[in-house]
């Protein structure tokens, strides 16, 4: 339950949208649920707000003046110190959802959306991120000449290069290394990483697996680390050592 009496402990949400009516409506909904809400009208305003005070989660519109939401999402997710991102958009094309998820967004909400859906999505993303932070205390995972530090949201490949991971990639890789050599269905992966029930059409895991494979250097045509388990989902094939 959110603490609504002590502002210093309330979850801070940054709403980035150039539509004043939508920003104010979303902020009112959030504040009614006990969240602290801040507004930004574009990318420049967003960076200024983040430099002044860190947010716990960002609601980011796609159609923004200047730098669009997709590019801002890419920049945010490239920095492991940035909060998780939920994309907001009026576009309902599958390709737009895929692009957002490929760039590292933690979730995607299509406008118009209801209060219950918005709050449920925020809570689900925050549960996943916080659960991952708690699990990260377990330390260092090693596999296939690589190492993974969930607490720092980064991995080190066999060449010694440090590769930053988004919150979604961190949670997905953490799920795999904690379940090595066990076939995991898409629904199971969604449950473990997203903290919410999936739908038969939710293909976001495929997008996240594709991005994670690239960072692992795993050939998408003939993957050796994260193999597709036909009829099931995916299987992490490596032996994993923990420290």
Tell me about this structure.
By secondary structure, the protein is α/β, with parallel strands linked by helices. It has 2 domains: 7-129, Response regulator (Rossmann fold); 139-242, Arc Repressor Mutant, subunit A (Orthogonal Bundle). The protein contains 8 helices and 13 strands. The protein has helices spanning 20-32, 43-52, 69-77, 94-102, 115-135, 167-178, 186-194, 204-216; strands at residues 12-16, 36-40, 57-61, 85-89, 107-110, 141-143, 146-149, 154-156, 162-164, 184-185, 226-229, 233-236, 241-242. The strands form 3 sheets. A 5-stranded parallel beta sheet has the order 2-1-3-4-5, sandwiched between helices. It has a 5-stranded antiparallel beta sheet with strand order 9-8-7-6-13, with no helix packed on it. Helix 4 packs parallel to helix 8, helix 5 crosses helix 6 (167-178) and helix 6 packs across helix 8 (204-216). The radius of gyration is 18 Å and the shape is globular. Mean pLDDT is 83; it is low at 1-8 and 196-201. Residues 12-126 form the Response regulatory domain. InterPro entries: CheY-like_superfamily, OmpR/PhoB-type_DNA-bd, Sig_transdc_resp-reg_C-effctor, Sig_transdc_resp-reg_receiver, WalR-like, WH-like_DNA-bd_sf. This is Two-component system response regulator. Pfam families: Response_reg, Trans_reg_C.
